[in-house]
Amino acid sequence: LCPCSMRFSHNMPQKLVWHGSSAHGERAIDTYCDAWHSASPDKVGLASSLLGNKLLDQERYSCDNRFVVLCVEAVPQDRRRKRRDTSSSSGPHEFANAMEYSGYLQSISAL
Fold this sequence. Notes:
four-stranded mixed beta sheet, elongated
């Protein structure tokens, strides 16, 4: 089910999604139900209502709830910027625009 269609589904009385992310998009290690493998009422995970306008709302729920797990990669802005500014010849590259990519291609073709 798409999160947008879940809002109207009668099969889901609680319109909540697990996300396990901080408000800044970083994984909240201690609040995502042991990588979604725990259903223990003693453990908690972060979830948000599909009826609100805050997808990464920071509501804590015990892991014995049956919500949908929303799998979206959220990359914090500062992490993207650091990765882009770090020039590493061994890792993947991210480019802010076509000019950066073109310059990179020219630099490696000169090798």
